Model the fold of this input.
Amino acid sequence: METPSSENVVVAIDGPAASGKSTVARTLARRLRFAYINTGAMYRAVTWHALENGGTEAAEEVIARLQEARLCCVIEDAESQFTINGADPTPHLLTEPVNLNVSRISAIPEVRKMLVALQRESARGRDVVMEGRDIGSAVFPETPYKFYIDASLEVRARRRERQGLLDAIGQRDSQDSSRRTSPLAIAEDSHVIDSSHLTIDGVVGEVIGRLKLKGLALRSDL
Done:
């Protein structure tokens, strides 16, 4: 799968569930004045769509329904907004049925192919912070600005509980890491940050410091 070449900057933020990557990525994007793109929300959205339209048991049916759907990702107020057939799935993204099925739907190669194409198109022509599980390894492997946000299993489980989510973190890790297409993995040139004992500002500060070391031109107040 070819990746587009462009003059825009892509900061890739990857990591497992409850590592803090979403909050880090959103906060970083605001500080850099980049657009923030949440790819995990896209996979949750298509999982919700599958559940609402016949279930998720047969991959062929999931693919067929998704191919018939109108998928749209736009940037509003510097953040990605994803709709399916004009519907905003945001209120449904953290429901238990979605939590229980998102890893399986995300593992379908055709689903990933469709969403990766949309993710690349959404970043075209603008500076972005994009977070997910395969941004640095598969979506934008050519970007020199790759970060992998991690935390201990115990810390991530506690964070998940505080979010009111009951999915098993260890099982989710195993599913995401073992899928055949674009598995959760640390890109060789990623800078790994353990967020177990860091604040969000601490992690964002480390990312910004690393971006400066890599020569990325940033605003003078950063």
Notes: The chain has nine helices and seven strands. Residues 21 and 136 are 13 Å apart (CA to CA). The longest helix spans residues 109-123.
